[in-house]
Design a protein that fits this description.
Layout (H helix, E strand, L loop, with lengths): L6 H6 L47 H16 L9 E2 L5 H11 L4 E5 L12 E6 L5 E7 L5 E8 L4 H9 L17 H13 L8 E4 L7 H10 L2 E8 L4 E7 L4 E7 L5 E8 L10 H24 L5
Helix pairs in contact: 2-3, 2-7
């Protein structure tokens, strides 16, 4: 069982730092000239689940074929290692129905190619969560852009992302030249080295909040030089944007939160196998299995009432 909190719980927990907007006039500081208050805009749209619509133009046979694929998939979703389902061999009209009913969710994963390949694969891998949390489309493309795999996967996060992040990273933080103006970053690197070297699977994440630290430009330069971006990036658009990026150091991730105006409001480093915000919890996957069951029932009802079925 995946030991993570539901994304709903993560989204609703208290924000970890106080946020003070520039230009916000606090109590007792009102201007006598009667100037307008200048508040930072508040995001008004929060991503919520909406059941996809069954395509009205699909015939009964196509709906039943797509529903059978989803039923096969849902049957194994809660297993410890559910097998992926390959969609590439399906007829185009069935895949189109699956595209419309599964949709695109709030989380996407990108894996950067190194020397034109991922491990032994010369493929570009694109991963997109569907509107059902914990249900992913993992597509592999050849160098000429041809689709060679189209997997439907149930997981907290597709395994290939973690495997590649670990395979393309170093187990230690390398030594780098320290700029003259670096004040706090050298001590931070010492702390990070200790956390990385002592990391054990299953332990609680070690979070370093860079937003609250007094860092000079040379401090940032040093951190960027010692901890450059890795091969895996996760983007979550649930509330504002959250960007989770691996680094070239194993088990060290950079987690950044942006508001709806793309202003960085929280910048952290996390020592963990994968940051919790990037994961779908077992609760999320169980909810998705139940919703998929409802969708399959609706597809069967629509298939039975379609003109072709009549």
């Amino acid at each position: 069982m995946t030991l993570t909190r539901s994304r709903k719980d993560i989204a609703m927990k208290q924000f970890p730092i106080p946020v003070i907007a520039e230009g916000l006039i606090g109590p007792g500081t009102q201007s006598d000239e009667g100037e307008d208050f200048n508040y930072m805009p508040i995001p008004r749209e929060v991503s919520t689940f909406r059941m996809p619509q069954v395509p009205a133009q699909a015939d009964g046979a196509t709906l039943r074929a797509a529903g059978a694929v989803l039923a096969q998939f849902a049957e194994t979703m809660l297993e410890p290692s559910p097998p992926p389902i390959e969609l590439l061999h399906l007829p185009d009209h069935v895949v189109e129905v699956l595209n419309q009913t599964l949709g695109e969710g709030e989380v996407s994963v990108r894996i950067a190619l190194q020397n034109g390949r991922i491990g032994q694969m010369q493929h570009d891998v694109r991963i997109q969560e569907t509107v059902f949390a914990g249900v992913w489309r993992q597509r592999h493309f050849s160098p000429d852009g041809r689709l060679v795999n189209d997997f439907l996967i149930a997981a907290s996060i597709p395994r290939i992302a973690l495997e590649f992040a670990e395979a393309t990273s170093l187990p230690i933080v390398p030594s780098v030249d320290i700029p003259a103006g670096a004040m706090n970053a050298p001590a931070l690197l010492t702390e990070i080295r200790a956390a990385v070297s002592g990391f054990k699977p299953g332990q609680e994440a070690r979070v370093i909040n860079l937003t609250l630290l007094p860092l000079t430009p040379d401090d940032h330069t040093l951190l960027d030089r010692a901890l450059p971006p890795g091969s895996v990036a996760v983007l979550s658009r649930g509330f504002g944007n959250c960007r989770v990026s691996s680094t070239t150091i194993r088990h060290l991730w950079r987690v950044q939160y942006f508001n709806s105006m793309q202003t960085l409001i929280l910048n952290t480093l996390e020592v963990t196998r994968v940051p919790e915000v990037a994961l779908a919890a077992q609760e999320d996957i169980a909810d998705s299995r139940e919703r998929l069951g409802e969708l399959i029932d609706w597809m069967e009802a629509d298939a039975a009432s379609s003109p072709a079925a009549a």
